[in-house]
Design brief:
The chain has helices at about 1-15, 20-35, 40-50, 55-80, 115-125, 140-155, 165-175, 185-200, 220-235, 255-270, 285-295, 345-355, 370-375, 410-420, 440-450; strands at about 80-85, 95-100, 105-110, 130-135, 160, 180-185, 205, 215, 245-250, 300, 305, 310-315, 315-320, 335-340, 360-365, 380-385, 405, 420-425. The chain is of the alpha/beta class. Bound molecules: nicotinamide-adenine-dinucleotide (NAD). Nicotinamide-adenine-dinucleotide binds next to helix 7 and helix 8.
């Protein structure tokens, strides 16, 4: 491991990764690699999670293609050294911000979108001129093997390499000295990563999780709300970091919303979702059992069926939930959706403020006033008004959490900024020298006093 990282460092210090032409070529190669392996990508995601081709294209590959194209379009201008204004006190100087790559970057990926979440950070790392060591998740084993093969066949290991393995391998990697660590995963492991990073003061981005609420107000479009909630929750069988974790609906529309959501579940997944060949499975037995236990909470309105052999759990709506039930303790990360009702928007705010700051928040309703109240009183990573998940696929919007849902952000320009150090440079004139900064008796002090009022 140490040898591999040293080789990357040597390659980085050769300066090879820095020119625009190199970065552009590598991004084009990355896209070509994904295209070349598309059929195998569909196969491994089917094997690891039973993802359909449609879901793989829209939630994994499509996002990466968009991200690569967007980066290629803007990279030249992002890389430009940026001139900034010169204050009067700095007369004679020019002032600039240079974007330099950090060096050798460690990317640690989770299993739930094992292609997208492994490669999206790499796009930013390449764009900014770094070398990359990728550690995919051991729980999406077919994808992990394919990632290894694809990168090994396409890129020189001194530029990008994949290190496969589980927790022990990750711990070994975290003992090494990287120049940047980009971690996507759970809040608990995020804390371990940050602690490890602190030994060398390595900068980190932590893309974590949390309980993302969906608030449904009485003036929403109920049909559309139900459709978008059902899609956002049950895509990838709820194993999405920004999936609505629970629904908090106005008491006046609560019964109608449930009726519509049941209809939408049937429409999207059929009368027997467990027999739907494209319905995503739970990643492993341990998570399946964890989720099965959560089914014991509250009253199941629809769903609740499980198939232990296929590791599938039907889309499930649950009511009669209290804020103190086990299902409300941690991020659910599965196809179970608790629903609760409220009377006043103020109660919603108070309740959500009791929790850690979520990664996402969704508000459904047409009142601008209530939208503003929500936006101004609750802190969360990002989210949507009248939709779910969609914000993360716009490369113009930085994506990341806040508080325990993460720190830092990426996608589009934010990715370039994340993987670049902004180096501030002042270039001083040598033709004259303004004396006020030097200690020089009363006059210098008087001038300084006038300037710094
Ligand atoms: P995880 O934290 O268990 O694992 C992530 C990575 O860390 C894996 O590569 C794993 O090998 C490694 N790891 C696990 N335990 C470790 C330990 N003790 N020490 C060192 N390394 C360790 O997360 P996961 O189960 O793969 O993914 C699910 C979580 O990720 C959810 O909480 C979800 O919300 C979050 N997530 C966040 C985003 C985001 O963009 N913010 C995206 C997807 C998933």
């Amino acid at each position: 491991m140490n040898k591999l990282i040293n080789e990357q460092k040597t390659f980085f210090y050769s300066g090879a990764t820095k020119p625009y032409s190199f970065r552009k070529e590598q991004l084009q190669t990355l896209k070509a690699m994904l295209k070349r392996y598309e059929a195998e990508i569909y196969e491994v995601l089917r094997a690891d999670l039973n993802k359909s081709k449609h879901e793989t294209l829209t939630t994994e590959l499509g996002i990466l293609y968009t991200e690569i194209d967007f980066t290629l379009k803007h990279l030249k201008s992002w890389m430009k050294t940026q001139k900034v204004p010169t204050p009067f006190t700095h007369t004679g100087t020019t002032n600039e911000i240079m974007y330099e790559p950090y060096g050798t970057v460690l990317v640690i990926a989770p299993w739930n979108y094992p292609i997208q979440l492994a490669i999206a950070p790499i796009i930013g790392a390449i764009a900014a001129g770094n070398t990359v060591v990728l550690k995919p998740s051991e729980h999406a084993i077919h994808t992990s093997k394919l990632l290894y093969k694809m990168f090994q066949e396409t890129f020189d290991s001194q530029f990008i390499t994949v290190v496969e393995g589980g927790v022990d391998v990750n711990q070994q990697l975290l003992n090494e000295r990287f120049d940047y660590i980009f971690f996507t995963g759970s809040t608990n492991v995020g804390k371990i990563v940050m602690e490890k990073a602190s030994q060398y003061l390595t900068p980190v981005t932590l893309e974590l999780g949390g309980k993302s609420p969906a608030i449904v107000d009485k003036d929403c479009n109920i049909k559309l709300t139900a459709k978008r909630l059902v899609w956002g929750k049950f895509t990838n069988a709820g194993q999405t970091c920004v999936a609505p974790d629970y629904v908090y609906a106005h008491v006046d529309i609560y019964p109608k919303l449930i009726k519509e959501m049941k209809k939408q579940i049937r429409k999207l997944y059929g009368n027997k979702p467990l027999e739907n060949k494209d319905y995503v499975k739970i990643v492993n037995y341990q998570h399946f059992k964890r989720l099965e236990k959560l089914l014991e909470t509250g009253t199941i309105i629809t769903g609740g069926e499980v198939n232990e052999q296929d590791l599938k759990i039907a889309p499930t709506l649950i009511e009669d939930i209290t804020w103190y039930d086990p299902i409300m303790e941690d991020e659910i990360f599965g196809p179970l959706l608790p629903l609760m009702s409220f009377k006043q928007i103020d109660d919603v705010i108070k309740q959500i403020q009791n929790y850690e700051k979520p990664l996402a928040l969704y508000y459904f309703g047409s009142s601008n006033k209530n939208q503003e109240i929500i936006l101004n009183s609750l802190s969360f990573g990002g989210g949507c008004m009248n939709d779910t998940l969609y914000h993360l696929a716009n490369p113009h919007l930085p994506f990341g959490g806040v508080g325990s849902s993460g720190m830092g952000a990426y996608h589009g320009h934010a990715s370039f900024e994340t993987f670049s150090h902004a180096k501030s440079i002042l270039t001083q004139s040598t033709t004259f020298d303004i004396p006020i900064r030097y200690p020089g008796g009363k006059l210098a002090f008087k001038i300084a006093e006038k300037l710094f009022k």
